[in-house]
Each structure stands twice: as structure tokens, then as C-alpha cells.
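Extended Data, panel c. Modelled sequence:
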Amino acid sequence: MKFVKSHGAGNDFVLIEDLEDRLGLLSPTLVAALCDRHKGIGADGVIRITRDPAADFFMDYYNADGAVAEMCGNGIRCLAKYVDDRHISSGDTMRVGTRAGVRELVLYRDGAGLVDRVRVDMGPPILEASRIPVEAGGDSLHVPVEVDTARYEAACISMGNPHAVIFVPSLDAIPVERHGPAVENAAPFPAKTNVEFTEVLSAGEVRVRVWERGVGETQACGTGACAAAVAANLRGLTGRHVVVNMPGGALEIEWTDATVFLTGPVVEVFDGEIAEQARIVTPAGR
């Protein structure tokens, strides 16, 4: 099995080309093994690239725990670079199908003609509690969540997947590794949730640490950056054009009347091949 390792602002993925749809859906065991940072390749998720009758390609995306996921803003940029750099696709625009719908992309290239930056039309944010989903009692922007002795107020938004944005005065004071999974699995979130701990720096800039559902803390999250920017604007804390600083780098978010645009870098790290007999493709313990 051939693969490519790529990342968008440090949010990293294993990409597997399957344009003829020979592999089909990947097993949770295989995905988790590929993402294992000690015994596998190491990644936040796996992307199987295949065709889509309603778009140019389909992003079959899996979180590191093997669960299928609806959308990934950093991962979709990695897919765009993969197919464009290999001349599987041509042109400056691309349409990619996801479980959250078709997304339109604009590609930017470096001096060597390789894609190094991509803008993604992420679609409009979903604010209705039942569609996020969150049990909000009618107000999805002010959802109380208690963790240990802390009481947070989450602004809940879906960007095709659920997010709980929590504004804090100082990001450095938050124990993300403890409070992240506690919020992810908290009672108001029937499908669990991604969590964005967010510190507002100015009307045009925020700082975010993300705990991703089914993954853990990641260097960046595209849909999470969008959710944080939208929530900050709805709370009256920022404008509609926001730079979101994450541990792995900065993402640029613009929320127009019609949609949310995400622009950010993309890097290919290495490629390789996993032997069919390798233990990584067999269930643990065998």
C-alpha cells in the first residue's frame, strides 16, 4: 500500500490514492495502526482519495481512532496538493466531495509550480442546536459545561462537524489535555464534539488550542479555526476576517454573508509503501 504523509499547519495526515475505489472503506483497525506515532506512520487522520460523481474527487476521511468524520479543512488542502502536484487534476480550482457536502477550492502555487497554499469554501456555519448537534436549551452560543471545578460557557457551531468554542482570558492557564476530553464527552454533546479553547488577541486575531474528537490535541484544525472565528464574531469579540494562530501555524478565516473561507499552507513531508505482510495492517495482538 503506497501512501503520502502531508500536513496543513502541523495537522498531519496519511493520504492513500484509490481513484478506482478498489480499497473501499478502510477498517478502523487499519486507520488506527497507520496513525500510531510509535508503531505506524503517525498522523492525526487518514484520507482515502477516490472519485466523486458530483465533484472532481471525494475525501474519504478518518480520525486517528478509526472513526469516519464529516469534514477536515486542513486535510482537504492536503488532498488538493496531492492530486495537483501529480497532474491528476489541472487548473486553479477544484471541487471535492466530503461527508459534509461538496467543497470548492482555489489553489496557489510556488515558484516551482507546486501547490503551497489553498483556499477552501467551507460553507456557511450551522447554528441550529439540533443540527450541530448540541442540547442547548435553545441557545447554542451559551452552553454551560462543567469540568472538574471549572465552569465554561461554550459557543457551539457546526462546520459540517460539531465544535464547542470556549473563550478564555489566558490560553496558557488551561489544562487542555484534561479539560479537552472532558468537554468532548460532556452531556450536552450527543455526538461528542471538537473543542477550541480560544484567547482573543485583537479584533482580527485569536489564539487557539484544539482538542479534536477521536484524535486528541492537534497542531491545528481547519474546521475548528472556522468555528472559533465565527463564534468570536457572534460574541462581538472580533470582526469577520480573523487570523487564527494555532501551535502548528496560522490559518486565515473570512466569514462573508454567504460562506466561510479558510486559507492556509500545505506541505508534503514524505511518501512510502507499507508491505502487505507488515503487522501494521493486521489487528492488534495477532
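The longest strand covers residues 101-109. This feature is highlighted in the accompanying rendering.
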